[in-house]
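ok so I'm stuck.
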Amino acid sequence: MRAEQNANSTAKMTTLNMTKDLVEPIKSGKILATIDQQGWLQGFEVVDSLWLYKTNANIFGGDQPVFYRPTLVNKDNTDMLTQYMGRGTR
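replied:
not stuck anymore, here's the structure
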């Protein structure tokens, strides 16, 4: 954001990897959006699925791949996600 300001640019900015530091710039429109890759979910679900299979023979997705997709975060949904970012699970 400093580079954009120093260059007097009117470029629109997006970024990757949602953090709580991006909440205010997204809300104010300084950053249009970011991608939340949901790394916590990806790591948790792998371990959870292994544990469920070992303890109960559960198989997620009917023995097919289970896909996780990143979420586009913008000013429309930032408020909903803020509480989760504060506890480190988003």
